[in-house]
Amino acid sequence: MNYPELENMLDSLLKTEGLSSTIEYRGDHINYGRRRRLWLLLKAVYRLLNAQLFYMSYIRGKIHRLKKTGSVYSDLKKTRCLKQLRTYLYLSKIGLTDLATQIGGRFDDKLFANFAIATMLYDASFDIPSCRKYLNSFDAAIMEKKQVNTNDVYLAVFQECVDYLNHALGKQAFEQFMNLVKIEHISQLMSIYQLSDKATSKEDLFKITFAKGGISALALLHLMTPKMKEQEKKAIYDLGAVMQLIDDISDIKEDLKIGIQTLPNQKLLTYEELKQLYFGTINNLIDQCNMDPHRPNGTLDMLCWFADIILEKRYKPFLQAP
Q1: pLDDT digits (tens, 9 = 90+) for 177-196
Q2: How far apart are CA 164 and CA 62, in angstroms?
Q3: pTM, two decimal places
């Protein structure tokens, strides 16, 4: 499919899910009291230790099998994909547990691990040249619901993770999950199809960014809480979209190197715009998920920490650079 066909399909699927390709600018401060809380810090350390034990006992075994892929495994290490997987687990265990509980679910380590490993292998097929050979297999698996070739260790690990999610969720919840994955896949294809000397419009980059990040967050929380309320789904989608912008800021140099245009690396968002988007979505999350802004919350503390690090120390200096 070409770019316009993908865009039409994305618009249709987002409409079916009741999701938008843009979000509102809602304010320039977070309505959450950021105070140092000793007990919350201790809880974070406890969750971090649990995440480390789980990583060593469950995830490392699956990752170890990838060594059989030789140069592919080396590239995963070289590009920090494996290291980022561990970091992703730690941050999510600390920060998402409270949000999952707040919306009536729970942070399930095995569900998250299988989602994270499958996502890492999938993302690598876009980002790492030696993994591009797997993109057609992932495309068929997502768009045509075909099983991948499990004779290949890389694809076998991916399929095992997907099979675990299918078994754990049940038929209906898994189908809903795959519908979300399909939207994210289309947005990923759009992000590589827009590689050219011609600048992509701000509107299109918003659409791609929000579908990639928003759906990724929504799919993950769907694993933890398959029966979210509509307002909770939309608030999490908005937050995930803005977190994708934060991730794009972290990857500014890498994306520029391979020619992928993003809102941050094209300097299409001012510092104030991003601040309003970020703070506004956190406030919206507090409102729509009935979170008490006066009570310590690991999710909200983590988001506030990201704001300080990314907005102040990374994005502002990048915008000021010549």
Answers
A1: 999 999 999 999 998 887 65
A2: 13
A3: 0.90
